[in-house]
Amino acid sequence: MAGKKGKKIVVTKVKLQITGGAANPAPPIGPALGQHGVNIMEFCKAYNEATKEKKGTVVPVEITIYADRTFDFILKTPPASVLIKNILGLKSGSPTSNTVTVGTLTQDQLESIAKEKMQDLNCYDMEAAKRIIEGTARNMGVKVK
């Protein structure tokens, strides 16, 4: 089915956070895509192939579903909280972030996370990106030097 200029008609966009290389038809993927008539196994194979080098890391994906039941997807960078936990070797953030500190990020670590996340953040310069990541760290109970 094509639009006026031969473009596919977009039915919806679905955003999911899936562990890299581990997509399967079980929830949340199956129900999210099945209700739009998408071939779930085809998506799982394509996603797993695209994320095979990022196994074990959460990789958000934005799936565009078209009227002819085909799809395209765009991989995003892992959430800032996941990157912070990976750098500091944490299992989780603080249950009470305002009183219990679980780790400390250096400015270099903060900058490396900001560089990685820059394309997906809603900012134009590195200082703003660092402030966004710093806020996420504070909410997790991580101090920034």
General description of the model:
The chain has five helices and five strands. The chain has 145 residues and is an alpha+beta fold. The strands form two sheets. Strands 1-2-3 form a three-stranded antiparallel sheet. Strand 2 (58-66) and strand 3 form a beta hairpin. Helix 3 (80-88) runs antiparallel to helix 4 (107-117) and helix 4 (107-117) crosses helix 5. The longest helix has 15 residues, at 126-140. The chain is elongated, with a radius of gyration of 18 Å. The mean pLDDT is 88.
Name a few traits of the molecule.
about 140 residues, alpha+beta, Ribosomal protein L11, N-terminal domain, Arc Repressor Mutant, subunit A, 2 domains, three-stranded antiparallel β-sheet, two-stranded parallel ribbon, 5 helices, about 20% strand
Strand order of the largest sheet: 1-2-3
**Class per helix and strand makeup:** alpha+beta
Q: What is the approximate shape?
A: elongated
Radius of gyration: 18 Å
State the gist of this model.
This protein is of the alpha+beta class.
Write the layout of secondary structure elements.
Elements (H helix, E strand, L loop, with lengths): L9 E10 L9 H6 L5 H11 L7 E9 L4 E5 L4 H9 L14 E3 L1 H11 L8 H15 L1 E3 L1
Helix pairs in contact: 3-4, 4-5
